[in-house]
């Protein structure tokens, strides 16, 4: 990407808009007792399936001891269970529970309703632009 004043301004606007929207979405949680990090771990388990604490730490960009504490908190809340690793007895596999699945589904529903209300305030051209940008934003989120 060429560094031009227009590109720099566009990147700044994108960063600012995404961060503000993200913060507002985080306030639409169903369970206020969970930290954003705990919710993120549950989301990762929902997207990627069961994982060891080490794998979760890498995916969440946290240190393994921190992930061990997060997993222990989630287990105490009945949102994950620890099963023996099928090949390595020294490790455990973290799996989300049905309770976590239901909570995540309700959280997604609540956030979608909130976001749909905001989108309803856009005109048709703005909504078309946002629909076209959604796959690109998704790609950026996973690079």
UniProtKB/TrEMBL annotation:
GO terms for molecular function: DNA binding; DNA-binding transcription factor activity. The keyword Heme does not apply. SMART domains: HTH_MARR. InterPro entries: HTH-type_Bedaq_tolerance, HTH_MarR-typ, Tscrpt_reg_MarR-type_CS, WH-like_DNA-bd_sf, WH_DNA-bd_sf. Residues 11-139 form the HTH marR-type domain. SUPFAM superfamilies: Winged helix' DNA-binding domain. Keywords: DNA-binding, Transcription, Transcription regulation. It comes from the Bacteria. This is DNA-binding MarR family transcriptional regulator. It comes from Streptomyces netropsis. The lineage of its organism: Bacteria, Bacillati, Actinomycetota, Actinomycetes, Kitasatosporales.
